[in-house]
Amino acid sequence: MEELWYSPHMAAASRAISERIPLVDLIVELRDARIPLSSELEILRNYPTSSRHIVVLNKMDLADRSKSQEWMKYLRERNFISYGVNSHNKENIKKFLSFIQTQVRGLKRTDHSSDTATVMLVGIPNVGKSAVANSLHKIGRISAAEKGKLKHAIVSPEPGETRDIRSFKIASHPNIYVLDTPGILPPRIPDVDVCSKLILTGAINDCLIEIKELAQYFLAIFNCSEQYKNWENLSTKDNDKLFLDCTTECLTSSKMHMKQRRQSPTDHTQDCIVRDVRRTLFETISAFDGNTRDEEEMAELISRQFSALQEAFQVSNECQEEANVKVAKKLLNLFRTGRLGHYTLDLLPSNIH
After folding, report:
1. Is the dihedral of CA 160, 164, 170, 173 positive or negative?
2. Is 258 inside any structural domain?
3. How many domains does the chain have?
4. Crossing angle of helices 90-110 and 129-143, rounded to 10°
5. Are residues 109 and 228 part of one domain?
6. Looking at the structure, do residues 84 and 222 belong to the same domain, yes or no?
7. Is residue 284 domain-shared with residue 244, that is, in the same domain?
8. Does residue 247 contact residue 314 with C-beta atoms inside 8 Å?
9. Distance from C-alpha of 85 to C-alpha of 198, rounded to nearest angstrom
10. Residue 131 included in any domain
């Protein structure tokens, strides 16, 4: 049975992209740097690796830097041209645009003499194609000193927002146009672990799994990582000092946002609350003397963490079920925005066993 994410629109987009692949000069496959293997675009597996196919790991700012380098090395060893990018970093995008121009010029020397090239961005939903297209277009227009209103692609944290294939000029001499395409997934994803990673990173909508269960999945990953050790300096027995520091920090944060909308006292994105969440995670796992490899003991640790995080997020306990949902949503938001560390969830194939 085809899953809920595979709509008629996605099926049509898959066909349209497949038809255009042989016609474009360069295929830039964007993958999520946190899941370099799980975010592979299935329809490209039928095409041999070539200089026309570049694998770009986007969201490098959210992934483990050393592991991302290992993944790019792994891809290069398998004859892929690979590149790492952060679509929100202007200097990074400038270098990426220069890299694309170099690749296009190389193709033009060995291919045909047309002075126009087309680059197609492809990938799964919410991997950042529209953000990359917008950034390349903006940098390209500024570099060429071209006038006129910029045409932006729609950028959204929700998967499936891009509905059509859109063209944006990103460079001149030669003229290079980038095609921003809708995110697509295969009709079926038989691997439960891969599916969980896609939901956790936002490629598949959260509605397909209970939000608390998804947060528990993240905590299981977190508890097996070394990330918590980076927050040792946040642990303190001097609760009064912690409270005063937090209050001061919240007040400072409030002043910085006076021209913006008024923040709620329980806004989980405030630095002081993020710090409390980090401290809570550090202390709960540090105090745990069980075995995280044991499923039951891991579940017990996660249960303790949910209770402690409820206080850190300042969530009311009037209804425990609603409280758990609120904690889960806030926790996942902090993970997805990089506030709880940098993670690469996919193991290199050589390390899987």
Report:
1. positive
2. no
3. 2
4. 80
5. no
6. no
7. yes
8. no
9. 19
10. yes
Which residue type does 56 have?
Answer: V
CATH number, domain containing residue 89: 3.40.50.300
The structure tokens listed for 172 are 């001149």
Both structure tokens of 324: 């758990």
CA-to-CA separations, 198 to 191, 206, 212, 220, 320, in angstroms, rounded: 11, 10, 16, 16, 28
Domain range enclosing 98: 8-180
Note whether 221 and 110 are same-domain residues: no
Angular region, 42: left φ>0, alpha ψ -120 to 50, beta rest:
alpha
Taking only the tens place, the pLDDT of each residue in 204-247 is 988 878 999 999 999 999 999 999 999 999 976 544 444 445 55
* Higher-confidence position of 287 and 151: 287
Does residue 352 sit within a domain?
no
**pLDDT tens digit string along 69-120?**
999 999 999 999 999 999 999 999 999 999 999 999 888 776 655 678 999 9
Q: Answer yes or no: is 285 within a domain.
A: yes
Q: Cα 348 from chain centroid?
A: 18
CA atoms within 13 Å, Cβ hemisphere of 10: 20
| Close Cβ partners of 103 (under 8 Å, ≥ 6 residues apart) | 26, 51, 54, 81
